[in-house]
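Late entry, evening session. Most of the bench is empty. Finally got around to the prediction I had been postponing all week. Sequence below, unchanged from the version circulated by S.P.
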Amino acid sequence: MGMTHERFEALAEAWGGDVARWPADAREAAALLMAAEPEFTRAALARAEALDAALDAWRPAPASPSLVERIVAAAPALRRPRWLGWLSPAALGAGLAAATVAGVIVGVQLSEHTPDARQVAVTNTLSAVSSSLEVEEGA
C-alpha cells in the first residue's frame, strides 16, 4: 500500500525528521515515497527536523528557591511505622540468636534419634552374633 502525502506529513510531525525512528511498518512505504518524490519528502522532513531541534533545545526553567521551600514545607512529615522499631539492631540480633538456639536444639534432638553409620554397624553385628548364637543353641 502506498503512502499519501498526508500520511507522510502526519508521521513526520508525530515521529520527527529521522525516518529511522518511525514505526517499522511505515518505513518501507516512506522510503518508496522519498524515492518517488524527494522534493516533497525533503521539505516535510526539514520541517519536522526544525521542530525536533526546537524541542531538543528547550529546557524547563529551574524552580526558584522560595518555591522549593514552600513545596518542602507543605509536604507531609514522614512517620516511621511502629513495626520498624522491631528491626532495631538489638531486636534483630536477639531474633537471630533465638533462631540459632532453636536450630541447635533441633539439630541435637535429631542427632540423638538418628543413628550414625558406626552405631548401625555395631547394632547389625550384635544382631547377627545373637542370631547365630540362638541358632547354635537350638541345634
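Two things to note before I forget:
The radius of gyration is 41 Å.
Residues 85-138 form one domain.
Will write this up properly tomorrow.
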